[in-house]
Amino acid sequence: MRIVLVGPPGAGKGTQAHVLAKTLSIPHISTGDLFRANIGQGTPLGLEAKGYMDAGRLVPDEVTIGMAKDRMAQSDAANGFLLDGFPRNLAQAKALDEILAEWGIALDGVLDLEVPEDEVVKRIAGRRLCRNDGSHVFHVDYNAPAVEGVCDECGGELYQRADDTEATVRHRLDVYHTETEPIIAYYQQQGVVSTIPALGKVDEVTQRAIEALKSDS
User: Which keywords does this Swiss-Prot/TrEMBL entry list (predicted)?
Assistant: First the structure.
């Protein structure tokens, strides 16, 4: 299956992408991983992207598209893939369609994770990370530490990331609505979008997504 996963920040895309890709036995292709791999390996696209990033500029669509195309062409993606973070705007969505058409294939589905905006803000603004180990993550409402501000795992100090404040989260939501949300309408015209309520337990959301993919196939 060839799937695009879309949704606002805080919708749980990363978690669902990992679980769904494993369940469907297809690679999870995220924009973050693409950039890290290309920059780490020193590929021409990676070096180009790094140049823009080091200069504090946005990486052009054509560079991101090139990275995604190279990754989708790898052997482990021959039978499908799950795209997370790409496409992130209409130009990238149209480019993806052109790439797939060139290869004689098409998307099987676009999963739109739907979460109320206030819930997104609550999820992200309530996160607290351990300074000693960033993998120790807590939440002031959903997974509070036994002692406020102290990591249950190692006793380290818990802190809020600068980009997890409410003001920053609302700005990220504005960017999502302006840049990424239009691709949902674009794919709705193709009849491949399934909107998935993303509230509830992780396995419940995953089951909704799998059922939606079954009904579309």
Answer: ATP-binding, Cytoplasm, Kinase, Nucleotide biosynthesis, Nucleotide-binding, Transferase
Catalytic pick among 13, 71, 122, 123: 13
Residues comprising the binding site?
Answer: 10-15, 31, 36, 57-59, 85-88, 92, 127, 137-138, 161, 172, 200
| Residue ranges with strand state E in 156-199 | 158-159, 193-197
Which CATH number is associated with domain 2-27+74-216?
3.40.50.300
pTM: 0.89
Q: Which residues are annotated as a binding site for ATP?
A: 10-15, 127, 137-138, 200
Give dist(CA 186, CA 100) in Å, integer.
Answer: 16
Nearest Cα to Cα of residue 1 among 98, 108, 86, 77: 108
What does each of the 217 residues of the chain score in pLDDT, given as a tens digit?
A: 999 999 999 899 988 999 999 999 999 999 999 999 999 999 999 999 999 999 999 999 999 999 999 999 999 999 999 999 999 999 999 999 999 999 999 999 999 999 999 999 999 999 999 999 878 999 999 899 999 999 999 999 999 998 899 999 999 999 999 999 999 999 999 999 999 999 988 899 999 999 999 887 6
